[in-house]
Design brief:
By secondary structure, this protein is α+β, with helices and mostly antiparallel strands. It has helices at residues 2-11, 55-67, 81-84, 101-109, 114-125, 128-141, 164-175, 181-184, 207-210, 250-267, 360-372, and strands spanning 27-32, 38-42, 76-78, 98-100, 188-192, 198-202, 214-222, 226-235, 238-247, 268-274, 279-284, 292-297, 301-306, 317-320, 332-340, 343-351. The chain has two domains: 2-270, 3-Layer(aba) Sandwich (Beta-lactamase), CATH 3.40.710; 275-372, Peptidoglycan synthesis regulatory factor (PBP3), Domain 2, CATH 2.60.410. It is built from eleven helices and 16 strands. Strands 2-1-9-8-7 form a five-stranded antiparallel sheet, sandwiched between helices. A five-stranded antiparallel sheet has the order 11-12-16-15-14, with no helix packed on it. Strands 3-4 form a two-stranded antiparallel sheet. Strand 5 (188-192) and strand 6 form a beta hairpin. The longest helix has 18 residues, at 250-267. The protein is globular.
């Protein structure tokens, strides 16, 4: 009966309203993706074991390597004894065999393969220790103060912890690498190994099959962490991220996640304020090679608000940074800001060309133009 009720919630979402106990989780959070705005949280900064949600950070480091060109989807990975002997969830890799990065990534994203993530860690940074060091450096870079990793897979270990807020931030960063969603949205698939044998992979995140718009991200379970899930769903131009940690069972973590998503999609809308690459102003400075440099919005600026709410974003204003010349292309030079009620919304402004410091000859030409009245 419990499973039938869960299926009804997934297939026929109902209106959900926010309260302090929207989930049974020890820690939970709901975030809108494009703005990073938190719409609901409960004990979101409590340090807990993240189990295999750890692999969200591992996948982030791997996708960074792929996107910067130092790792390719079709690269071969030699499976070490260390990777092959990993316990817990696995895709049963054989030592000294080879697998493509693409296939190993499926093993991580779909089946949460501990052996697969260790193999990729060794491939990307040479050793698991160096990979874990990079995981923690990335956490610090993202400003996460309640996260510390001891391994790339999430098996329980002293000092290995995170919180729902931090996991949402890591998930948001991972989703920027959109190709990963092509893996995390797969419900089931056969993995073909070097010897021709096949392993059936099935996603423990049932929402990718039963909840419209869910295309990731990662479940987790250990006896210490209990049942955890970081999920994301997109409908039209809205994407939300949810995290639940310390749930009592699989069905409850799925139901609670669906409830958070139902609440989000039923109650919020996205206001698009200004788009990426909009020319909004220029820098005028006779200390540079050119007299005028245009500035552009670095990214879209959106605001997530309750449905049917009417907000006046008013006239924006610009604040500029103190610049030291020369300034490289794509450097943030200031911010375009909107004041809404007591909140400031801002988007970075960049230049799309190098700004070179003027030479003596440039000054001479500029002053000559001033004398001639053509500057």
């Amino acid at each position: 009966m419990k499973k039938i009720l869960l299926l009804i919630i997934l297939l026929f979402p109902i209106m959900v309203f926010a309260d302090d106990n929207m989930t049974s989780a020890k820690s939970s959070i709901l975030m809108e993706y494009s703005t990073g705005k938190i719409l609901y949280e409960n004990n979101s900064k409590e340090r807990l074991a993240p189990a295999s949600m750890t692999k969200i950070m591992s996948m982030l480091l791997i996708m960074e390597k792929i996107d910067n060109g130092t790792l390719k989807f079709d690269d071969d990975v030699l499976i070490s004894e260390n990777a092959a002997k990993m316990g817990g969830s696995q895709i049963f890799l054989s030592a000294n065999s080879k697998m493509k990065v693409n296939e190993l990534l499926k093993g991580v994203a779909i089946a949460s393969g501990n052996d697969a993530v260790v193999a990729l860690a060794e491939k990307t940074y040479g050793s698991v220790d160096k990979f874990v060091q990079k995981m923690n450096e990335k956490a610090q870079e993202l400003g996460l103060i309640n996260t510390q990793f001891k391994n790339p897979h999430g098996l329980d270990e002293d000092g290995h912890y995170s919180c729902s807020y931090d996991m949402a931030i890591i998930a948001r960063e991972l989703i920027k690498h959109e190709a990963i969603l092509e893996y995390t949205k797969i419900y089931e698939e056969y993995l073909t190994k070097e010897d021709g044998s096949k392993t059936w992979l099935v996603n423990t995140n049932k929402l990718v099959r039963f909840y419209e718009g869910v295309d990731g991200l990662k479940t987790g379970y250990t006896t210490n962490a209990l049942y955890c899930l970081t999920a994301t769903a997109k409908k039209d131009d809205l994407r939300f991220i949810t995290v639940v940690m310390g749930e009592p069972d699989n069905d409850t973590r799925t139901k609670d996640t669906a409830n958070l998503l139902n609440y989000a999609f039923n109650n919020y809308q996205l206001n698009k304020i200004i788009k990426k690459d909009q020319k909004v102003d220029y820098i005028k400075n006779n200390k540079t090679l050119k007299n005028k440099y245009y500035v552009y919005t670095k990214e879209d600026l959106n605001d997530v608000v309750e449905i049917n709410s009417e907000l006046d974003y008013g006239k924006p204003y610009i604040t500029y940074e103190e610049l030291e010349y020369p300034v490289k292309k794509n450097t943030i030079v200031g911010y375009l800001k909107y004041k809404v009620n007591n909140e400031i919304l801002s988007v970075p402004l960049i230049v799309k060309e190098d700004i070179k410091k003027a030479t003596f000859g440039d000054y001479f030409k500029y002053n000559l133009k001033l004398l001639l009245g053509i500057a």
